């Protein structure tokens, strides 16, 4: 998933205001689609798809060349679907548009939490405590902290903790200093990537759960958390192999001055997000993943209100300032998301269209001819996602293509959970290792090196070991879940 834009758009233009309104309409359509009666679903789907289309049209002049090329390819594939599969085209295009809007809605809803976190003194205090841990506890502390903050901040956790790490290392360009920077930045990077196998507030889960509608997040989560735990152990073992010689180790470690309890409010915030989402799911009947998405703007708004109450002379003033900031968030940030939302939603749309154009009987015959059992095909799919990431293919596209061209899990003879575990785990490892992914790029910028160094040199052995673990884990999940 690409990082949030560092520069919000200017709110002055009418086109940007229209873009902000269109994305707001799309977000309402996505979030209300699961909660309202089934009879309103077509109207809400039209609202979500229409809002996304108008948003893309309004933002077209601001898009990068790559984003515009994805929009063009989406239009070409939509026309090809209508011409080559006229009977199935309406259903295919509705499904593709719904998937694209769902991914875009997730991205937009997460921005409210990130906005609140950026101005919270608590977040920086927690980051300072994590970065000040001694080497024996540092990897687990930083990776766990990045994992926790990543649920709230998404990609924003890497520059946040990365800046704290850089300030702690300072100008130490000695071999020990460079190694320390590598280990700390790798811990932050890998810790963030561990949210991708399981968190419902990630594009990886949005794409996989959309592609596997028979699977619910609460059924996947325990197994996917096992993936994250295994990757954490492998990352810690990889970190232990990079310890400096005894004569170069630092004997005295500065502390942040904060107690460990500084982390408790952030832990409570994450629990609150899932608790509110779970309550809304129980009351409305919405899928849990959509309910959690619905909770994030509300909790982000509440978090900002708490900050305003601490600084404002009265509750009335705090409420007024919070309302102004929420309005300003939409006007400033929603238009600024154009490249990221366009790339993500277009990739989901493109994958769905290509999958519909590939003859299902050809795919089935090819799979039957392969001397590989069904569970082996699922493992192979995980390796393919990581391999495609090394040549620049976004997992949104590769995962959508794979889930669209492979027969349904039940037809293949594998459990849907096993396929989801394989794809989300592979997505996580792609985010850790691909020099074309946003996470290695952001990490490389903070560390003063290249994305290739971060992805392949720093994380290459970790990725290979984790892929081997993932292969065995997927086979075990298929056996146990079934």
UniProtKB/TrEMBL annotation:
Coiled-coil positions: none
Keyword Transmembrane helix set for record: yes
Transmembrane segments: 42-58, 70-89, 139-166, 187-208, 260-282, 288-312, 333-358, 378-402, 414-438, 458-477
Swiss-Prot/TrEMBL keywords: Membrane, Transmembrane, Transmembrane helix
The protein's name: H+/citrate symporter
Organism: Novispirillum itersonii (Aquaspirillum itersonii)
């Amino acid at each position: 998933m690409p990082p949030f834009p560092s520069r919000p758009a200017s709110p002055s233009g009418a086109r940007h205001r229209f873009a902000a309104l269109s994305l707001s309409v799309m977000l309402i359509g996505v979030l209300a689609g699961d909660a309202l009666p089934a009879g309103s679903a077509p109207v809400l789907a039209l609202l979500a798809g229409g809002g996304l289309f108008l948003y893309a049209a309004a933002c077209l002049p601001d898009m990068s060349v790559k984003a515009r090329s994805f929009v063009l390819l989406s239009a070409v594939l939509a026309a090809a679907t209508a011409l080559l599969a006229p009977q199935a085209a309406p259903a295919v295009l509705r499904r593709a548009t719904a998937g694209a809007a769902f991914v875009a809605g997730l991205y937009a809803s997460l921005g409210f939490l990130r906005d609140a976190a950026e101005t919270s003194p608590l977040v920086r205090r927690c980051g300072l405590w994590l970065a000040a841990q001694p080497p024996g506890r540092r990897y687990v502390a930083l990776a766990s902290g990045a994992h926790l903050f990543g649920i709230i901040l998404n990609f924003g956790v890497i520059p946040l903790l990365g800046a704290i790490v850089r300030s702690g290392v300072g100008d130490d360009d000695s071999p020990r200093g460079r190694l320390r920077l590598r280990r700390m930045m790798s811990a932050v990077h890998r810790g963030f990537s561990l949210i991708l196998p399981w968190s419902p507030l990630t594009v990886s889960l949005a794409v996989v759960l959309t592609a596997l509608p028979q699977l619910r997040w609460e059924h996947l989560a325990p197994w996917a958390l096992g993936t994250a735990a295994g990757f954490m152990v492998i990352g810690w073992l990889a970190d232990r192999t990079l310890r400096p010689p005894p004569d170069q180790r630092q004997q005295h470690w500065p502390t942040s001055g904060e107690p460990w309890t500084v982390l408790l409010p952030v832990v409570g915030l994450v629990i609150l997000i899932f608790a509110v989402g779970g309550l809304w799911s129980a009351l409305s009947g919405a899928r849990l993943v959509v309910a959690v998405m619905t909770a994030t703007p509300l909790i982000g708004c509440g978090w900002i209100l708490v900050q305003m109450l601490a600084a404002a002379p009265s509750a009335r003033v705090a409420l007024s300032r919070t309302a102004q900031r929420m309005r300003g968030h939409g006007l400033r940030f929603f238009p600024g998301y154009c490249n990221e939302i366009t790339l993500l939603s277009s990739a989901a749309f493109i994958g769905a269209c290509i999958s519909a154009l590939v003859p299902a009987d050809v795919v089935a015959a090819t799979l039957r001819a392969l001397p590989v059992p069904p569970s082996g095909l699922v493992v192979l799919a995980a390796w393919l996602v990581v391999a495609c990431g090394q040549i620049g293919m976004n997992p949104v596209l590769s995962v959508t293509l794979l889930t669209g061209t492979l027969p349904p899990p039940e037809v293949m003879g594998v459990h849907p959970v096993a396929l989801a575990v394989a794809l989300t785990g592979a997505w996580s490892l792609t985010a850790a290792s691909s020099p074309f992914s946003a996470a290695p790029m952001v990490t490389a910028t903070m560390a003063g090196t290249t994305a290739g160094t971060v992805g392949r040199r720093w994380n290459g052995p970790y990725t290979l070991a984790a892929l081997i673990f993932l292969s065995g884990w997927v086979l075990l999940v298929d056996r146990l879940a079934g």
